Amino acid sequence: MASVEIKEISKIFADHNAVNDVNLTVNDGEFLVLLGPSGCGKSTLLRMIAGLELPTYGDIFIGDRRATRLQPKDRNIAMVFQNYALYPHMTVYENIAFPLRVRGVEKRTIDPKVQWAAELVGLTRMLKRKPRQMSGGERQRIALARSLVRDPDVFLLDEPLSNLDAKLRHSAREELRQFQDRVGVTSIYVTHDQVEAMGLGDRIVVMEAGKIRQIGTPEEIYQHPADTFVATFMGSPPMNLVETEGMTLGFRPENFLPAENYANGADITPIVFNTHRVEYLGGDRLLYGHVKGNLPETPVIARIPSSVSYTPNPGSEAKFAVASADLRWFDKATGKAIEPNKQTEIRRVAHV
Ligand code: ATP
User: Fold this and answer.
1) Virtual CA dihedral for 40, 153, 105, 80, nearest 10 degrees?
2) Which ligand 1 atom sits closest to the C-alpha of 40?
3) pLDDT in tens, 316-345
4) Hey, what domains does the chain have and what are their CATH numbers?
C-alpha cells in the first residue's frame, strides 16, 4: 500500500488544458473518488497516475517514489476499466492467474494467490467457469481479483460499474466498498455519478474544466459546497439557488418544507412558495414551483416525504420554510461559498 501525491500537475493536449495545476494527496488506504461532468479531466488525471499519459507539468509520487516518468509496469498499480477485457476462452481461474503467468511466476506460488484473491471477491466456487457464464457483477469481480494477485500499491478504477444495470450497479458498489475495506488498498475511483461518489468515497474530489473545485468527505461536500457549481452538481434535484439583492441564497429541496412541519419556536426562515406541478417518486414527492414575496421570483423545487400530508394548491401561495441553519450563502460575483461563521451574520441582515 502507498499514498499518492500529485503536485502541480497539468496536462495540455494541443491547445486544450485538460488538467490544470492540480494538487492532491491520496492517503494510504483511502478510497478517493474523482467526480465531475464529462470532459472535466478526471480520466486524464487517472491516466497520468497510471503512467498512460505523461504530464505536461508537475510531479506524481507513489509512496515515497517519484513516479512521474516511470513506465506503467514499474509503478505497481492495478487499473480496472469500464471494459474488463477478460479472456473469453480462459476460465475464471486462468483469467485471475494470467498476470502472474506472464511474469513467469511459478505454478505453486500462483495457486495460493489465485485462491486467496478468489476468496476475497467471493468467486471460489466459480473458478472453473468461463466469463460468458457469469453476470456483469461477477465479471467485475474477476477483473478485481486479477488485479489483486499482483499485490498492487494502488488501485485505479475508471467507471468500472458503468456497464451494469441499475440494480446490479447498486450491489456491485456495495461489494466494491466492502472489498476495499477488507484489502485496504489505496484506491482512486473515477465517476461522473454523484450517487456512486457519495456511496463509495472516503473523500470526493469534485473537478470541473480541469480544476479541482472542492475536496472533502461526502457530507462536507453535500452540506457545505464550496461554490455554486458544487452546490448544483451534487444532489438530485440540485440545491435551489435564489439571487437576492446582495448574495446568492441556496437551500436543498429536502430542507424546504411546509412551515407547519416545523416545531413551535424552531429557528426557521419563512419563504412563500407557489407549486405548479407535483411529481410522485414513491418515498418522496417533488413539488416544482417558484418562490416569491420575500424573495425575488425564482423557480425552485421542494422535496417532501410522502409521509408528510400536504396537498398543494396549484396557483396559490403557501407558507414554506427552511431551518435557518440549512440556508447557504454564496458570493454573487464569484459563486464561492461564504464562510459558515459569517453566514449567521448575513442571515440577520438579509431580511429573508
Ligand atoms: P468522461 O467522463 O467523458 O470520460 P473525463 O472527465 O474523464 O470525461 P477526460 O477524458 O479526462 O475527461 O478529458 C478531458 C478533456 O481532454 C476533454 O475535453 C477531452 O476531449 C480532452 N482529451 C482527452 N484525451 C485527449 C487526447 N488524447 N487528445 C486531445 N484531447 C484529449
Assistant:
1) -30
2) 6
3) 889 999 999 999 999 999 999 997 667 666
4) 4-223 (3.40.50.300), 237-350 (2.40.50.140)
